[in-house]
Design goal:
By secondary structure, the chain is mainly alpha-helical. It is built from nine helices and four strands, in the order H-H-H-H-H-E-E-H-H-H-E-E-H. The protein binds zinc ion.
């Protein structure tokens, strides 16, 4: 896992993915106490604040004059952007999701973010081992799940959303951290001023 997370273009200032990698290594070596100490160092409140800040920026964008000015006539904006008629939602098989994550080296493709994401089953395994430190419940509710899920969880993002005509073809799928996925939702990336970066290059092998 660590090899895939080290790239020349990721947000290398962010220490949490490295910390989680080390915690997984500790678990695999049978050093559960060391893993627990590493996980306990994660500042959940800082992650909550980050999510709240991102949601505030989204609300401000939806209310901005620039956004409202290009609203299509007769179509109302809701919390997910413009209500529209597009493609029916289709399931992305796990194998296809993994192919997208591997192509993108598990890094959020939005240029402003470049967060190193964590494969959700890895987070769930850590939750099973340390439920008091990384709470998880299957219905994904903020503040009941640890905010790691809502921030670092790897997701497959439909760059053009279903209501806007997007499909689940690989060329429309990118890796996004769960926070970026939640914020963009069914908006156009342009609405938020977001740019998709090129697929990054792996430089590490350890
Ligand atoms: Zn992101």
């Amino acid at each position: 896992m660590c090899r895939l997370l080290k790239t020349s273009m990721s947000n290398d200032q962010d220490v949490i993915p490295d910390l989680l990698c080390r915690a997984v290594d500790c678990v695999l070596r049978g050093e559960r106490g060391a893993a627990r100490s590493l996980i306990a160092a994660i500042d959940q409140l800082a992650l909550v604040a980050s999510r709240k800040s991102a949601l505030r920026r989204r609300r401000a964008t939806l209310a901005s004059a620039a956004f409202l000015a290009h609203r299509p006539r007769g179509i109302r904006a809701d919390s997910n952007g413009w209500a529209a008629h597009g493609q029916p939602r289709t399931h992305v098989p796990r194998s296809a999701m993994l192919a997208i994550f591997e192509r993108d080296h598990f890094i959020c493709r939005y240029q402003h973010c470049r967060r190193r994401t964590i494969y959700v089953p890895v987070l769930r395994a850590l939750s099973a081992l340390f439920p008091e430190l990384i709470p998880y419940q299957k219905n994904w509710r903020p503040f009941e799940d640890h905010m790691l899920y809502w921030t670092y969880g790897a997701s497959v993002e439909h760059f053009v959303s279903f209501p806007h005509g997007g499909t689940s073809d690989p060329e429309n799928l990118i890796t996004a951290c769960y926070q970026c996925n939640e914020i963009k939702n069914m908006l156009w990336a342009d609405d938020l001023g977001w740019v998709v970066s090129d697929v990054c290059v792996t430089i590490g092998t350890d």
